[in-house]
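ok trying this again, last paste got cut off
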Amino acid sequence: MNKKTYILGISCFYHDSAACLVADGEAIAAVEEERFSRRKHDSNFPKNAIDYCLKEAGISVNSLDFVVFYDKPFVKFERILETALTYAPAGITQFIQAIPLWLKQKLWISELIRKGLGYKGKILFSGHHESHAASAFYASPFKQAAFLTMDGVGEWETASFGAGCGNELDLQYYLRFPHSLGLLYSTFTYYCGFKVNSGEYKLMGLAPYGRPIYKDLILNKLIDLKADGSFKMIMKYFGYCSSLRMTNRRFDRLFGGPARKPDTEITQKYMDVAASIQEVTGEIMLKMACHVQKITGQENLCLAGGVALNCVGNSRILREGPFKNIWIQPASGDAGGALGAALLIWYKYLGNKRIADDKHDFQKGSLLGPSYSDDYIGDFLRGSNIPHRRLDVKAIAKEASDLIAQGKVIGWFQGRIEFGPRALGDRSIIGDARDADMQSRMNLKIKYRESFRPFAPSALREKTDQWFDLNKESPYMLLTAPLREEKRIALPEGAGEGLEKLKNKRSEIPAVTHVDYTARVQTVSEEINPLYYELINQFYLKTGCPVVINTSFNIRGEPLVLTPQDAFKCFMRTEMDYLVMGSFLLDKAEQKAVKI
């Protein structure tokens, strides 16, 4: 028998540390370290994630042929040092704070891998944006395609593009630090009072409540945008090169006041600021995509990097751009760099053949993390004296769909945990999208987050275009689509501004219809996730509605639940009504005597 070639990809020490194991070009396992440590966006060396990947494949560290790190630390350190010198003396405090971690950990990746894993084999390093590009193209369904990567910053690069064909990946064009679309968006995330590197979703969700009245100000004062999507930022308005703040006093004066303090009231001004930067971001993304197509001549586009999680911008590229098809890496952030780095070694470094069919991607629904058997779940429930009922396999979807149709909110814990930031039907909280009160109820009493945050719909793939203006699959919840006109409800005159818009029923599925009549759609196929598909299908057969709410199984500030223990704890700390774990159904009303 021919021995498989095992390649372990690692990303860490910035945010969203992760590990991925590739065997003969196939992603066997991939998971973020935060799932184990319970620290959201954990940046530490992903020892737990690595241990899981090896266990899933049934191998030891001695079976690894290569370990690859997702970027080049010495080049990144060069950028940090050069930036500090350029902005000296202002940048010296930031540099002094960063130095100890670099000297202790970040410059010694090879030694950490060897000591931490007991690994004696070959260690390789790929470029940061090369890892993003590989995660986009090699995992995509396309035989050949252009790719575009956009994020905060890697080593020096902040965006890149090129083309892939077969096992080749040709990355030729870059945008360089400090000019960065990701950092531009994060600056406004900071200004609107949200946390950088995690609050960008909130900024995107807030944008439809505002008007883009600051768009021209941004384009005229903050950036110099070219027709090809490249741009320069007017750095005197930004603080991230020389301080621990994204903005500075000039920026504050330009927008008429200081950054919003976290957890304070969101006024109309910040809604308008959010709408303005979202408009600018979408315009830049579209210009970049048009230029990429012009240079590469490709009809397919692959996207990765943290900016590719901006589903509103992605949708502009799909609707208004020149590409026939687009595919977005579901783990587009740094976690996905671990996957990209491993695939890069298999295809480009080792020269192995890649066989694609232009239809099916290689991501496996991004269901690549740990799973827990019914035996494990049953032992936990019985050992903790937790009241439960075991269901027949065929009854799970039917009973759960009945409960959802009755207005109940369900924690849904099945199969392998998702790789990437989206819950896609294995670690989800599910509700009835037809319920007008469900958005505020789930936000305030279950997720414990801001009331304006929209929820995403999961829809049967073959029924999606009957409800949304979307003729493409969106399995990873990375595209927004307008609700079809016949499903909308017109707002009354004087419906209000800002958060007042939430009070109006907007459609037949108001809980997943944002105030601008769009939704971040997940199309669910029987092929990828048969149990989740059957749940929605049973709900459809009962109600005529092939759409349910799908939000991530966690509460604000915590990672997605990993284990049955995590799921039960989250279930008990919120106002969820039921929990389905594997074949087991838990009723909240029966849990009063259980201590957590």
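PB: full thing came through this time. The first strand starts at residue 6 and ends at 11.
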